[in-house]
Design a protein that fits this description.
The complex is a heterodimer. By secondary structure, chain A is mainly β. Chain A contains no helices and 11 strands. In chain A, strands 2, 4, 5, 6, 9, 10 and 11 form a 7-stranded mixed beta sheet that branches. Chain A has a 4-stranded antiparallel beta sheet with strand order 1-3-8-7, with no helix packed on it. In chain B, strands 2, 4, 5, 9, 10 and 11 form a 6-stranded mixed beta sheet that branches. The chains are: A mainly beta, B mainly beta. Chains A and B meet through strand 4, strand 5, strand 9 and strand 10 of A and strand 4, strand 5, strand 9 and strand 10 of B.
């Protein structure tokens, strides 16, 4: 977990509602990432950002949006267009003294009914 | 596209046993490989990182090896303990797309007292 916080830990939403997941870091890392994890599967990349005001789509960006207005923050919005949003969402960073490693936050479990 | 496979999906061993977890990848053009531990409902904790030019890394009872030419990495855990019970994931970082990490689906380890 270290200097990466994700809130809330659990989130419940009704189908058709947009929801925003928070990711904040105090590691002064340049790169930030959002992953989705489903039971028994590996992590899949949703979006990543290398610098402020710039971000790129990952492998499963459809139905998601992000912003990177500050170095410390990389919020993820799950829109109503995401067909199967229930999952465990993980935020990660990379940079600083060990730019080749990824560091992960504690995750947010989103349940949409 | 890079594919990462971890076999077996689950492993149960008695306490004290030495064990090996396997990770294989299809594209040998990797920048590095990272091993993580994940406890239930938690984020990922980095265990070891091996750069593509290295053959192995050690930390305490853990030893990770890398054979790029055959597309394989192993994580060796010596004298296993019940506290080692967790899911272990490997991830490779591409050479051509430095911003992408490809994850295996993990091996769930249970060390019985």
């Amino acid at each position: 977990d270290g200097g990466i916080t994700q809130s809330p830990k659990y989130l419940f939403r009704k189908e058709g509602q947009n929801v925003t997941l928070s990711c904040e870091q105090n590691l002064n890392h340049d790169a930030m990432y959002w992953y989705r994890q489903d039971p028994g599967q590996g992590l899949r990349l949703i979006y990543y950002s290398q610098i402020v005001n710039d971000f790129q789509k990952g492998d499963i960006a459809e139905g998601y949006s992000v912003s990177r207005e500050k170095k410390e923050s990389f919020p993820l919005t799950v829109t109503s267009a995401q067909k199967n949003p229930t999952a465990f969402y993980l935020c990660a960073t990379a940079g600083g003294d060990r730019p080749y490693e990824q560091y992960f936050g504690p995750g947010t479990r989103l349940t949409v009914t | 596209k890079q594919e990462v496979t971890q076999i077996p999906a689950a492993l149960s061993v008695p306490e004290g046993e030495n064990l090996v977890l396997n990770c294989s990848f299809t594209d040998s053009a990797i920048y590095n490989l990272q091993w993580f531990r994940q406890d239930p409902g938690k984020g990922l904790t980095s265990l070891l990182l091996i750069q593509s030019s290295q053959r192995e890394q050690t930390s305490g009872r853990l030893n990770a090896s890398l054979d790029k030419s055959s597309g394989r990495s192993t994580l060796y855990i010596a004298a296993s303990q019940p506290g080692d019970s967790a899911t272990y994931l490997c991830a490779v970082r591409g050479t051509y797309n430095f911003n992408k990490f490809y994850f295996g689906s993990g091996t769930k380890l249970n060390v019985k007292p």
